[in-house]
Amino acid sequence: MPKPYDLPPLGDLACFEAAARNLSFKLASSEMNVTPAAVSHRIRALEHELGQLLFTRHYRGVELTEAGALLFVSLQRGFETISDTVARIRTLHDRTGVTISATTAMSGLWLTPRLAAFWKSFPDVAISQVVQDSGKTVGADLSINYGDPERETDETRILFRDRILALGTRHFAEAHGIRNLSDMLKVPLVHTLSADNAWTGWPEWFDTLGWPAPRGPGFTLNNYLISLQAAEDHIGAVLGWEGLVGTFLNSGRLVQLVPEAMESPFPFYLRIHARASANARLFADWLAEHDHHP
Hints:
Layout: H1 10-22, H2 25-32, H3 36-50, E1 55-58, E2 61-64, H4 66-90, E3 98-102, H5 104-121, E4 127-131, E5 142-146, E6 155-160, E7 163-168, H6 170-175, E8 189-192, H7 202-208, E9 218-221, H8 224-232, E10 238-241, H9 246-251, E11 255-256, E12 262-263, E13 268-272, H10 278-289
Parallel strand pairs: 3-4, 3-5, 8-9
Antiparallel strand pairs: 1-2, 5-13, 6-13, 7-10, 7-11, 7-12
Helix pairs in contact: 1-2, 1-3, 1-4, 2-3
């Protein structure tokens, strides 16, 4: 019966690849757990079948011939493709679960409270959260971002787009005599800055409302959840996205300091990564289509 791919024995090819990668029969034998004589025998058999020398033998080692180099490059490409496929197959048993990446604030204030409602409808789908405030997340099916979804090459879903409010404690408002927007220009402000999350800042907020940049003292943090905590501790006023700060407003932990508000320039959106499973897409659609308040 003819060979379907007209290939030499795969064991000989694997042995050759190890010897070519290491440029050593001895290292290849150690890697493959056989004797150097066995490696030499397999490669001679491969050379005989191909009718070409694959190595130039020297006293202190071996070098690839032109034919050997050609075969080595081809085998490497093939083995890399096979390796990628095997890695994907090995993780297939895990693909029923969903991994989603979000900032500390987005996870704690918006995502986690909604999981209970999702699990009522889909109790068999396991969700893993990766809380990431900086850097790129590797291995996630989904990620939640604030910014322009048009910049993404992956598929996206808009989650919400809302108003940005000036928030603080009642004690803070009374201590600084805040009655109108002009009073906000001089009070301490909490700024949230992050290289990886384009949080809208106070200067932009005032400018959008037609006011000059604030002149009061600033307190800068790189974590929005901690910025909210700082405002709770009366350190300064903080900007609040309505979709995120509902629990703070409903409980009275923070209050809206002035009635003016800015329409958010960006939405919070979901990025569906290329590796996303069917369950990840199910979860993405559910998050985008259901406005479940915790």
